[in-house]
Amino acid sequence: MRIRELNVVRKKKYNVSIALLFPSTYQASLSSLALQILYFYLNQHEELFAERIVSDINDGIRSIETGKSLAKFDYVLVLSSYELDYPVAINMMQKAGISPMRENRDKPIVIWGGSSPTANPLALHRFADAVLRGEAEAFLDSLIEHMLSATEKKQFLNSLSSVDEAWIPGIKEEGIIGRVSNLDDAFFPLRQIQSLDIEPFLGRAFILEPSRGCARGCRFCMESAVLGARRERSLGKLISYIDEGVEVNNVSKVAFYTLSFFDSPTGERLLEYLVEKNLEGSVPSVRADSLDEHKVELIKRIGQRVITIAPETPSDKLQALINKMISWDTVMDVAKWCRKNNLFIKLYYMYGLPNEDEEDLELIVSQVRAVRDIMGSRESVRVSIVPFTPKPMTLLWREKMLSLKELRKRERFLKERLRVYARIESYPPKLSRMQYEINMLGKEAWKYILGLADISIDGISKAREVISKGGLEEIG
Question: By the 8 A CB rule, do 30 and 198 touch?
Answer without folding.
Answer: yes
